[in-house]
Predict the 3D structure of the following.
Amino acid sequence: QFHLVESGGGLVQPGGSLRLSCTASEFTLDKYAIGWFRQAPGKGREGVSCMSREGAITDYADSVKGRFTISRDNGKNTVYLQMNSLKPEDTAVYYCAASTLLGQDTCVVGRPHFYDTWGQGTQVTVSS
């Protein structure tokens, strides 16, 4: 069993930016499709973004397109979620997840059952 660790959450004003990081110490992230999810209080887990193995394919939820960007730094074994123009409705706990089930050039936004390893989450709060 390997572990994912998210970091970079915090409190930011509307219109601000944050960059979340997802890293693992026991395995190489570019061998797995990675998804970012979020869960707001009282709501279900929502898919935000995904990236295929080695990063050829990315996708985003409509609610974050044009504002969020997923990327990899293989040298640091880290996947990032750059979040710009943040809105109060972006407030949630953000999770990264790795999939051993998705093929080489495939990623799926949402659909948590495709992802089999999860981090512990990092809180993002957007408020003035």
About this structure: The two ends are 40 Å apart (CA to CA). The chain has a mean pLDDT of 94. The chain has no helices and eleven strands. Residues 2 and 113 are 17 Å apart (CA to CA).
